[in-house]
Automatic annotation (TrEMBL):
Name of protein: Thioredoxin
S-S bonds: C33-C36
An example Gene Ontology biological process: cell redox homeostasis
Name of one Pfam family that matches: Thioredoxin
InterPro entries in the cross-refs: Thioredoxin, Thioredoxin-like_sf, Thioredoxin_CS, Thioredoxin_domain
Similarity-based family: Belongs to the thioredoxin family.
Keyword terms of this UniProt record: Disulfide bond, Electron transport, Redox-active center, Transport
Thioredoxin domain span: 1-108
CDD domains linked: TRX_family (cd02947)
Active site (record annotation): C33 (nucleophile), C36 (nucleophile)
Molecular function (Gene Ontology), one example: protein-disulfide reductase activity
Length: 108
């Protein structure tokens, strides 16, 4: 586990994401999800490369159901970028590091 990745919950979502002074990329995932496990090392790398620019956060959709329902998370992994307390962009699935960094660069 990286110290650069923040694990968040329904209870901490407002403080950790909506009130963050930096953009926050939330990875909605589950332990049983194969593509979620495949994207995890990519998120580790990105959390170091984008340190100070964007916060990488993970929310387990099995343990936390209010926030995923509120943002209509239908499939996982779903990556949602929040800026200034609102959803700025969304990416579904494991699209590889190149597409993920391009997604971040064009939205932060």
């Amino acid at each position: 586990m990286s110290e650069n990745i923040k694990y968040i919950s329904d209870a901490s979502f407002e403080a950790d994401v909506l009130k963050s002074d930096r953009p926050v990329l939330v990875d909605f995932w589950a332990e049983w999800c194969g593509p979620c496990k495949q994207i995890a090392p990519i998120l580790e790398e990105i959390s170091q490369e984008y340190d100070g620019k964007v916060v990488i956060a993970k929310m387990d959709v099995d343990a936390n159901q209010q926030v995923p329902a509120k943002f209509a998370i239908r499939g996982i992994p779903t990556l949602v970028l929040f800026k200034n307390g609102v959803e700025a962009a969304r990416m579904v699935g494991n699209n590889g590091k190149g597409k993920l960094t391009a997604f971040l660069d064009s939205n932060i």
